[in-house]
Amino acid sequence: MKSAFFGIEDYRRAAQRYLPRMVFDYIEGGADDESGLKHNRAAFESLRFSPSRLTDVRTRDLSTTLAGQRMELPLIVAPMGLTGACRPDGDIMLARAAARAGIPFVLSTASNVSLEDLARRASGRLWFQLYVVHPEHARALTARALAADYEALVLTTDVTVNGHRIRDLRNGFSVPMRLNPRMALDVLTHPAWLTRQVVGGFPTLPNVQTEGSANLEVQAALLQRRMDAGFSWDDLAALRESWPRKLFVKGILSASDAARCRALGIDGVIVSNHGGRQLADFPAPIEVLPSIAKEVGSTTAIIVDSGFRNGRDVVKALASGANAVMLGRALLYGLAARGEAGVAEVLAMFRADMERTLALIGCARAAALDRTHLAQR
Ligand SMILES: Cc1cc2nc3c(=O)[nH]c(=O)nc-3n(C[C@H](O)[C@H](O)[C@H](O)COP(=O)(O)O)c2cc1C
């Protein structure tokens, strides 16, 4: 790790310096008054550990089991659109760093590399995230992900319409970028970023550019994050039929929805409020995790995301019933600050943090974490 980078805040600040303001705001921002964003962090901070003393913690085992598969490190790279605005080839850098760490990488529908190209250029465990913008397009994408040998499909369910993101509206941030004079100044005052973008290419959305009849309609809708708001449980049942590999449903925040997923044979739920980017007033995932784990934890895999910034947060989630954690912005800070090396460093930081936390709370195995490791409030 570079000597100037001791914690995630150092990467966040470096990302902020490197990126034009409109790009940093796109990554960092939340919905509405951003209270959901703050609440995600506050929920972690209000949880405290209850240590067990005099246990043997000479070796620490971070592994867990997720949907029947061993995870040496229970982390996953969350699907994120437009990572190419951080670094050209951002998706590839994230996927390669994930492969080196032995963890899955989830490619977004709104990625800046096609799903086939990514599969060619990065090895490791690849998952594909599906936004249903148009049923015909979704069927085509699913078939392509199967043909390209993606190991799992992640259906995102919390973008029925776009969240109200005031930073993006204020900055006039859109794809494709339409520069106004203020944005031009923003870009010109970040020459390192601009040079890389000019050399490597500004981001496009290739997953939606190669389709047939629905092509133009889908592109326009995806650019405005206008999804198929009619997608229902019946459609999910049909998707389950058409996708023979692991299927995860992202954006679940209630035990009753988790139970419906289980009834449809979904392999796992991703407890998420989309990092506070959709609606400010949802609970923090870490708050609803215990009730969801109680309902489906013995039968259905549970992944959680939103607001994870260090390994202590991850240990709290595992103790609350999660099998694995998805990281979003924390990895984009590493990516923007230092490219693929930065992503690897942030992952290494999470790993070290998790190991240290296990030692300090007196629990040698991540798989043995439960509510008794958290202080009762
Ligand atoms: C810049 C950015 C783009 C995102 N794009 C997508 C996306 O295309 N599909 C999706 O399911 N989630 C997307 N998300 C949400 C993440 O998958 C994840 O739920 C969220 O980032 C977790 O919160 P965190 O950033 O606080 O870790 C995006 C998040 C960010 C920050």
From TrEMBL:
GO terms of molecular function: (S)-mandelate dehydrogenase activity; FMN binding; L-lactate dehydrogenase (NAD+) activity
First-tier enzyme category under EC: oxidoreductase
Cofactor names: FMN
PANTHER family in UniProt: 2-HYDROXYACID OXIDASE 1 (PTHR10578:SF107), S -2-HYDROXY-ACID OXIDASE-RELATED (PTHR10578)
Protein's name in the database: (S)-mandelate dehydrogenase
Keyword terms: Flavoprotein, FMN, Oxidoreductase
FMN hydroxy acid dehydrogenase domain span: 1-377
Residues where FMN binds: 79-81, 108, 129, 156, 250, 272, 305-309, 328-329
GO terms, biological process: aerobic respiration
Catalytic center residues: 274 (proton acceptor)
